[in-house]
Fold this protein.
Amino acid sequence: MTVPAAAAEPGRPELQQTIQAIVGSGFTGVQLRVHDQRGDWAGSAGVRELGEAGKPPTDGRFRIGSTTKTFTATAVLQLVAEGRIGLDTPVAAYLPEFGFDRRITVRMLLQHTSGLFNYTGEYYDDGTVVPGIPWSGKEWVDNRFHTYRPADLVRYSLARPARFAPGTGWSYANTNYVVARLLIEKVTGRSYADQVRRRILRPLGMRDTVAPGTSAELPGPHAHAYYRYQDAGQWKTIDVSRQNPSWISGAGELISTTKDLGTFYSALLGGKLLPPPLLSEMLKPHPTPDPTSDYGLGLFELHADANCSGTMLLNHNGSVQGYGTLVYSTPDGSRTLEASITYVDTGVAPAEAYQKAVQRLIEQVFCVR
C-alpha cells in the first residue's frame, strides 16, 4: 500500500522528508510539531487509518504513554512546594496501609531508585525475565478493557522481590509512578485526573489533554493504532486505539496532542509550573545504565556529548500499544520537538531506519546553527 505524505507548511521541506522517511521505514503515520529559532511548524505523513487515504491530523490526539510521568512528577513537586509532601520523606509516612520499606522516599519514586518490582515485568541483564501483568500478546488483547485499580497494581509489585535495596541502584519501573499517583490522591483527597487538570491543564489552557482513568475512548480526531498477535497459530491485526488504560495509570495513561505537549514542556522548563529550587531538583541528574543519558525527577537528560546541539536535551518519550511519543526540549524550553508515531505493534523494537530518522529530526531542530 502506498502511503501519501501530508501537505507541509512552507519552508521546512527537510522536516517533511524526515517524517516521510519514518513512514517509509514501516510506520503507518507521523504527526510532528516543532518550535525553534525559525518559528512554529507542523506536518504529518502516512495515513490516519489503515486502508484509508486520509492523512494523520496535525492536531490529533494520541496516547502519550510514559510521557505521562513528567506530568505526574510535576504534580508531586507542586505538592512539595506547598509543604504537603516532603521530597525526602518516606513514602510509608503517607501510605502506611501498603507496608512500604521505610527507606523508600518520594524522591526515589520519581527518580526510579526505589527498587520496587516493575509490575509490567522485570528484564535483567543476563536475559532473565520475570513476567508482570499481561500487557502484550493475546492475553492482553483479550483483556484490554479490564479495569485495574492502582492500589492492586502496587500490591502486585510489593508481593514480589524488590530489584535492589532502596537507593542503591536505578531501574525504570512503572510501579513508582502508580505509587506517585496514589500519593497525590492521598494527600489532596482528590482524584489524579482532578489534580492534573487543576494544577497543569487548566492553567496552561491545555484543552486537548485528557486523564482518561478507566475510559477506553480516544476522543476527538486521532490517528489509529494497531496490534498484531498470534491466535491459534494465526496472525491477526486489530485496531487498539480504544483500550482501558488503567493498567498503566499514573505511569502512562494520558491522552494529548503535539501542541499541548509543546505548551507543557515550554511552561515547565520556563519556570511557570515549579519554583526554581524544585525545578532544579527535577533536573538534577542521576546516572542510568545508558551512558548517553541521566534521569532527573520525571525527565531524561540526553548528554551534550551524545547529541550535536552542544548542550543537554531534556525528554521523556513514551509508547503504548501502537502509539509512540517523542518529546525533546532545550533546558529553557525555547526549542521543542513533539511527535506522535502510529504503527502496527508487533512487540519488536523500532527498525534501525526509524532510529536514524529520529536522530535526524533531533539534528534538524536542535543542531542547526
